[in-house]
C-alpha cells in the first residue's frame, strides 16, 4: 500500500505470495488433523466458504476503484487487517493432536482430543494413534526421497494429478473470460461481473458444505467434473452459435455460471481436502507441499498461455478442450480416489498402505 515504485510493488507481492503459499499448504492439513471424523469434510468446505466470502468482500470493495485510481492503496490497507487478526488468533489455537503424538506429547494430545472431540473419543483415538505408530515403526518426519516409495509415491502422484486436472479443466480461463462474456450482455463493470461470479462460487461452496460428509468426496468430485464438462460444452455451444445473438449470449452466461457453480461444489474444495486425508502423518506436509507446488505451476502456465492459445485457435476450441479435461478428471476420480468419508485418518492409512495392512492382520 505504501509502494511508490514497481520494484516495491513486486517485493510486496512476493511477500504476500509467500504467505499465501504457506497458508494453502498448512490450513488444509491443520483442519484435517484437528477436525472430528464426522465433520472433517464440512470443516474443510467451510474453509472454501471463508475464501469465497473474502473474495466477494474484496470484489465489492474493489468496485470503487473503477472511479478512484488511488483506491487500490486503501484496499491494500484494508486487506492487511485480516492478516493481523489471523496472526493474533493463531496464538489461541491448539496444536494438532496428531502432531503432539508425533513429538511424544501424549498427555497434551489427550487434553486436546478431549476438548475438541469429546472425552469419549480420547481413549479410542490415542489407542488408534499408538497402533499405527507401532505398526509403522516410526512417526518421525519423512524425507523427500521417501515420496518415491510406495504407498507415498502413489498418494503424491494422485495429489499432483488432481491439481493438474483441476487447473487444466480451465477454471482460471473461465474466470478471466467471464468479464468479457458479461460485457456482451451489457454489464460493463468488470467489478460487478466478478461479483456475480464470486456469489455463484459462494453458493456452490455452501452446497458442498452440506454434501461432502453426506455423499462423500469421490461422488462429489465425479459429479462436479461431469457438471463442469456439461457446462463447458454449453458455453462452447453458446459461443459458437450464430443463429440468435441474444440466445448465444444467454447460453454463454449460463454456461459460465454453471461451470463455476459445479467447480465450487467439488473440484474446488474437495481436491484440497482429500490429499491430506490420503497422506499419513509422516508425509502429509511434504505431499501437500508437492501437490500445491504443482497447482501453482499449472495455474501459472494457464495464465501465461491462455490468451495466446485463444488468439491462435479461438475461444470455442480451447473451452472444448477444458470440457474434455473435465470428463477425464471425472474418470480419474472414479478409478483412483479412495473414499475417505466417515473414516479417521488412521483408518484411511491402514486401508491404503499394504505394509501396514499386512502387519495389522
UniProtKB/TrEMBL annotation:
Keywords: Membrane, Transmembrane, Transmembrane helix, Transport
Species the sequence originates in: Papaver nudicaule (Iceland poppy)
Membrane topology of the entry: Multi-pass membrane protein
UniProt cross-references to InterPro entries, sorted A to Z: GLUT, MFS_dom, MFS_sugar_transport-like, MFS_trans_sf, Sugar/inositol_transpt, Sugar_transporter_CS
Pfam families given in the database record: Sugar_tr
MF annotations from Gene Ontology: hexose transmembrane transporter activity
Similarity comment text for this entry: Belongs to the major facilitator superfamily. Sugar transporter (TC 2.A.1.1) family.
Domain Major facilitator superfamily (MFS) profile: 1-341
Name the UniProt record assigns to this protein: Major facilitator superfamily (MFS) profile domain-containing protein
Signal sequence segment: none
UniProt subcellular location: Membrane
TM ranges: 12-31, 43-64, 70-90, 155-177, 189-208, 220-239, 251-275, 287-306, 318-338
Gene Ontology cellular-component terms listed: membrane
Amino acid at each position: 500500500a505504501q509502494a511508490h515504485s514497481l520494484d516495491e510493488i513486486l517485493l510486496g507481492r512476493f511477500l504476500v505470495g509467500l504467505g499465501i503459499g504457506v497458508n494453502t499448504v498448512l490450513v488444509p492439513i491443520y483442519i484435517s488433523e484437528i477436525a472430528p471424523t464426522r465433520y472433517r469434510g464440512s470443516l474443510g468446505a467451510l474453509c472454501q466458504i471463508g475464501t469465497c466470502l473474502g473474495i466477494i468482500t474484496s470484489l465489492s470493495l474493489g468496485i470503487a476503484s473503477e472511479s478512484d485510481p488511488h483506491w487500490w492503496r486503501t484496499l491494500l490497507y484494508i486487506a492487511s487487517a485480516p492478516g493481523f487478526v489471523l496472526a493474533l488468533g493463531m496464538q489461541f489455537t491448539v496444536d494438532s493432536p496428531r502432531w503432539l503424538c508425533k513429538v511424544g506429547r501424549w498427555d497434551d494430545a489427550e487434553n486436546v482430543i478431549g476438548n475438541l472431540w469429546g472425552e469419549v473419543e480420547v481413549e479410542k483415538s490415542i489407542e488408534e494413534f499408538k497402533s499405527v505408530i507401532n505398526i509403522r515403526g516410526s512417526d518421525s518426519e519423512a524425507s523427500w526421497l521417501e515420496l518415491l516409495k510406495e504407498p507415498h509415491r502413489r498418494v503424491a502422484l494422485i495429489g499432483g494429478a488432481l491439481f493438474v486436472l483441476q487447473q487444466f479443466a480451465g477454471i482460471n480461463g473461465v474466470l478471466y473470460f467471464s468479464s468479457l462474456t458479461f460485457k456482451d450482455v451489457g454489464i460493463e463493470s468488470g467489478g460487478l461481473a466478478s461479483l456475480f461470479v464470486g456469489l455463484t462460487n459462494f453458493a456452490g461452496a455452501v452446497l458442498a458444505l452440506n454434501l461432502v460428509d453426506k455423499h462423500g468426496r469421490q461422488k462429489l468430485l465425479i459429479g462436479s467434473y461431469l457438471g463442469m464438462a456439461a457446462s463447458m460444452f454449453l458455453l462452447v455451444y453458446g459461443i459458437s452459435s450464430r443463429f440468435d445473438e441474444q440466445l448465444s449470449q444467454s447460453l454463454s452466461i449460463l454456461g459460465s455460471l454453471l461451470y463455476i457453480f459445479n467447480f465450487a461444489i467439488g473440484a474446488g474444495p474437495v481436491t484440497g481436502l482429500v490429499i491430506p486425508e490420503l497422506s499419513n502423518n509422516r508425509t502429509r506436509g511434504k505431499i501437500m507441499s508437492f501437490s500445491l507446488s504443482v497447482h501453482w505451476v499449472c495455474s501459472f502456465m494457464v495464465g501465461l498461455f491462455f490468451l495466446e492459445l485463444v488468439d491462435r485457435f479461438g475461444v470455442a476450441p480451447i473451452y472444448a478442450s477444458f470440457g474434455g479435461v473435465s470428463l477425464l478428471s471425472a474418470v480419474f476420480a472414479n478409478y483412483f480416489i479412495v473414499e475417505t468419508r466417515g473414516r479417521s485418518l488412521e483408518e484411511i492409512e491402514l486401508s491404503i498402505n499394504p505394509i501396514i495392512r499386512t502387519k495389522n492382520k
